[in-house]
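Annotated sample (chain length 87).
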Amino acid sequence: ENDNNKAWIVFAVSDTGIGMTPEQQQKLFAAFSQADVSTTRKYGGTGLGLAIVKHILQHHDARLEIQSRPGEGSRFACRFPPSRLLG
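Output written by the structure step:
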Protein backbone atom coordinates (compact mmCIF):
# COMPACT_ATOMS: atom_id res chain seq x y z
CA GLU A 1 0.00 0.00 0.00
CA ASN A 2 1.02 3.60 -0.49
CA ASP A 3 0.45 6.09 2.32
CA ASN A 4 1.60 9.70 1.88
CA ASN A 5 3.96 8.66 -0.92
CA LYS A 6 5.54 5.95 1.26
CA ALA A 7 5.19 2.29 0.35
CA TRP A 8 4.28 -0.30 2.98
CA ILE A 9 4.01 -4.08 2.96
CA VAL A 10 0.86 -4.95 4.88
CA PHE A 11 -0.10 -8.19 6.61
CA ALA A 12 -3.66 -8.18 7.93
CA VAL A 13 -5.92 -10.53 9.85
CA SER A 14 -9.62 -9.94 10.28
CA ASP A 15 -12.48 -11.66 12.02
CA THR A 16 -16.24 -11.38 12.30
CA GLY A 17 -16.22 -11.64 16.10
CA ILE A 18 -17.66 -9.38 18.77
CA GLY A 19 -15.63 -6.31 17.78
CA MET A 20 -14.58 -3.48 20.10
CA THR A 21 -15.62 0.04 20.97
CA PRO A 22 -13.14 2.91 20.48
CA GLU A 23 -12.65 2.99 24.27
CA GLN A 24 -11.73 -0.71 24.32
CA GLN A 25 -9.34 -0.22 21.40
CA GLN A 26 -7.44 2.50 23.30
CA LYS A 27 -6.68 0.02 26.11
CA LEU A 28 -5.75 -2.84 23.81
CA PHE A 29 -2.02 -2.16 23.47
CA ALA A 30 -1.40 -1.30 27.13
CA ALA A 31 0.50 -3.96 29.07
CA PHE A 32 -1.63 -6.02 31.46
CA SER A 33 -4.83 -4.55 30.06
CA GLN A 34 -7.54 -6.16 27.98
CA ALA A 35 -10.49 -4.70 26.12
CA ASP A 36 -13.05 -6.15 28.52
CA VAL A 37 -12.57 -7.87 31.89
CA SER A 38 -15.37 -10.34 31.09
CA THR A 39 -13.26 -11.58 28.17
CA THR A 40 -10.35 -12.14 30.56
CA ARG A 41 -12.56 -14.20 32.85
CA LYS A 42 -13.96 -16.26 29.99
CA TYR A 43 -10.81 -16.86 27.91
CA GLY A 44 -7.89 -16.09 30.23
CA GLY A 45 -4.74 -14.22 29.28
CA THR A 46 -2.68 -11.47 30.83
CA GLY A 47 -3.05 -8.72 28.26
CA LEU A 48 0.62 -8.77 27.24
CA GLY A 49 0.48 -10.25 23.73
CA LEU A 50 -0.43 -7.17 21.71
CA ALA A 51 1.72 -4.87 23.86
CA ILE A 52 4.76 -7.08 23.10
CA VAL A 53 3.92 -7.32 19.40
CA LYS A 54 3.55 -3.55 19.10
CA HIS A 55 6.88 -3.00 20.88
CA ILE A 56 8.71 -5.43 18.58
CA LEU A 57 7.16 -3.88 15.46
CA GLN A 58 8.18 -0.39 16.55
CA HIS A 59 11.81 -1.54 16.68
CA HIS A 60 11.46 -2.50 13.01
CA ASP A 61 9.92 0.83 11.98
CA ALA A 62 6.62 -1.00 11.51
CA ARG A 63 3.13 -0.16 12.72
CA LEU A 64 0.34 -2.21 14.26
CA GLU A 65 -3.13 -0.89 13.56
CA ILE A 66 -6.65 -1.97 14.43
CA GLN A 67 -10.04 -1.25 12.93
CA SER A 68 -13.03 -2.58 14.83
CA ARG A 69 -16.73 -2.04 15.42
CA PRO A 70 -18.86 -3.67 18.09
CA GLY A 71 -20.82 -6.57 16.64
CA GLU A 72 -18.93 -6.49 13.33
CA GLY A 73 -15.47 -7.84 14.13
CA SER A 74 -11.93 -6.52 13.98
CA ARG A 75 -9.04 -6.10 11.54
CA PHE A 76 -5.44 -6.03 12.72
CA ALA A 77 -2.79 -4.88 10.25
CA CYS A 78 1.01 -4.86 10.51
CA ARG A 79 2.63 -2.33 8.18
CA PHE A 80 6.31 -2.75 7.32
CA PRO A 81 8.50 -0.47 5.25
CA PRO A 82 9.75 -2.63 2.37
CA SER A 83 13.39 -1.90 3.23
CA ARG A 84 12.95 -3.76 6.55
CA LEU A 85 11.64 -6.90 4.85
CA LEU A 86 13.49 -6.91 1.55
CA GLY A 87 16.92 -5.99 2.79
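Annotation: The helical segments are 22-27, 37-43, 49-59, 82-86.
Annotation: Residues 1 and 74 are 19 Å apart (CA to CA).
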